[in-house]
Specification:
It is a single chain. This protein is an alpha/beta fold and about 400 residues long. The chain has two domains: about 210 residues, Glycogen Phosphorylase B (Rossmann fold, 3-Layer(aba) Sandwich), CATH 3.40.50.2000; about 160 residues, 3-Layer(aba) Sandwich (Rossmann fold). About 35% of the residues lie in helices and about 20% in strands. The chain has 14 helices and 14 strands. An eight-stranded mixed β-sheet has the order 3-4-2-1-5-6-7-8, sandwiched between helices. A three-stranded parallel β-sheet has the order 9-10-11, with helices on one face. A three-stranded parallel β-sheet has the order 12-13-14, with helices on both faces. The protein is globular.
Amino acid sequence: MPPARESERVVPRILHVSADYPNPHRGRTTTAIERLVGMAGVGEHVVMSLNRTILPWKTYFIDCGQVDGVHLYACRYFGLPMGLGLAPTMRRVARKIARALEERDWRPDLVHAHKFAFEGIAGLWLAEHFGPETRFFVSVRGESERNVFLRKPGYRGLMRRIADRADCIYHVSSWFRPTYHRYIPDQPAKERLLPNIVGNMAPDFPSVAPQQRFATVLHLDLRKRKGLSDLLRGFAHFQKSNAGIGLDIIGPGDARNVESVTREIGRLRLGDSVRLLGGMDGKTLFAQLPHYLALALPSHQETFGMVYLEALFAGIPILYSRNTGIDGYLDGIQAGVSVQSGNVAEISRALSELCQNNPSYRQAIRRSGKALRERFAPDSIAAGYRADIERFCQEEPLLNAAE
């Protein structure tokens, strides 16, 4: 077939399946995937924003229409806790998605499932349903995938099928790759890193004299997974020789969790030095971060942790956990201090190091500005994603259906 004229090309149709995409009918969630889709720069995008419920009468499937340049659907589906019946549940979701698309006579050229062991099951079914010419991308997000890989050995064959069918496999969690490859053969031609996109990258790092305070940023409803108790205990030990240093806890939470954290602060006698500031919008947070000594977030499980990057682009160092979150992306950069999650003594020592040598860490981050931007520049991340879409959707130019 001779090459198609430019006028004969059609815009590739891209279906996104994600449990982490904002929609008007759900609570707050991360904007990482929304940013990636919004910056793709090519394609007609349909997004299925998923949300699980254990109450069958609370399910819905709502066509939200065009929202910020994508056709958005909100889908709350019934699913059991602890991943029980995960595969049949996700296949039911996939069948519902297929019916909705077929009613619109809309057929995807590409399906991107944004979580390997969950949406990936639905994505595999959809790619197979729409035929071998349908391209398939899948993202690996370690925090969620880890539980399925380690606790559901019966699913490993299905996980290998997802990887084999995929045209691109995006590792959002660099730290998870060794565990992933313990069960899935290495396929370097189709695998690459795809870090989350942050919203506060600027040409220059802020140059601000810090207050004598640390910050931690988290949703208090996730405080156990984020290691807040470990941080508070480490900070209490650190405070014994650094009485003038404070800690601000930034983030929303329901009344019960706010009360639990307040009681813990009281038990540790930290009421004079630890403040609960509540939630902040992104613009306010970006403005406040440069004024802190460092961001401290010793999470137990973290897919990527955009707030670490937001802190680095605010010019401040980070206290982060090894083998989770942003670990694996910072090789060769003196970005802060890593700790073993749950190790209170290590957390205390890391706080001391970041306090005593704060100027050198801030200077090192400024010197590493080029490397940080090369690894995490939104335009560069989006350009790589766009190139993959174009490569796989337009290897053989698509012709208008009328012809």
